[in-house]
């Protein structure tokens, strides 16, 4: 988080951070996730996969339960590939498919190119997910 904080806007970097949701304490419900993040205008989503990869997104709009994409170009996705080596992918401006969240899951960095996938998809009560290349962030695969 210390390395990542250098890439956040100053007002957020200097704010008091608060852990709002963790599957260890809050369970695996997407609805609980949205409830815990209510009224949080900016969030840092950090995920560690089963192979130890750490990755996620900085999102600048409050979470909504909707099948439509929302958010803005201040968001980004990231990955720590080799320990503390941060790979950061800012929004490209090629599309505005930043964030989508409904009862079934979360999509970060949608793609309007049929040969690409989303930057990050989380589904099945946080038990499944994938990462792909997306023209929203022009990222490499974020996880194992």
Give a description of the structure.
The protein has one domain (2-130). The mean pLDDT is 90. It has four helices and nine strands. With 144 residues, the chain is of the alpha+beta class. Strands 3-6-7-8-9 form a five-stranded antiparallel sheet, with no helix packed on it. The chain has a four-stranded antiparallel sheet with strand order 1-2-4-5, with no helix packed on it.
What's the layout of helices and strands?
Layout: H1 2-5, H2 10-13, H3 23-26, H4 30-36, E1 43-48, E2 54-59, E3 66-70, E4 76-82, E5 85-90, E6 99-102, E7 105-108, E8 120-123, E9 128-130
Antiparallel strand pairs: 1-2, 2-4, 3-6, 4-5, 6-7, 7-8, 8-9
For the residues shown, what is the average pLDDT? 90
What's the total helix number? 4
Instruction: Tell me the structural class.
Output: alpha+beta
Low-confidence runs of at least 5 consecutive residues: none
Tell me which oligomeric state these chains represent. Answer: single chain
Query: Kindly, what is the distance between the CA atoms of the first and last residues, rounded to a whole number of angstroms?
Result: 20 Å
Largest sheet: 5 strands, antiparallel
Number of strands: 9
């Amino acid at each position: 988080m210390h390395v990542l904080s250098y890439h956040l806007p100053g007002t957020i970097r200097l704010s008091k951070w608060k852990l709002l949701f963790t599957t260890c304490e809050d369970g695996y419900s997407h609805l609980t996730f949205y409830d815990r993040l209510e009224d949080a205008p900016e969030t840092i989503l950090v995920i560690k996969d089963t192979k130890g990869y750490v990755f996620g997104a900085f999102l600048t709009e409050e979470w909504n339960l909707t099948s439509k994409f929302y958010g803005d170009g201040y968001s980004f996705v990231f990955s720590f590939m080799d320990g503390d080596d941060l790979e950061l992918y800012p929004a490209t401006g090629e599309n505005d498919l930043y964030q989508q969240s409904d009862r079934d899951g979360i999509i970060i960095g949608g793609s309007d190119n049929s040969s690409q996938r989303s930057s990050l998809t989380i589904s099945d009560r946080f038990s499944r997910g994938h990462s792909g290349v997306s023209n929203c962030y022009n990222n490499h695969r974020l996880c194992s």
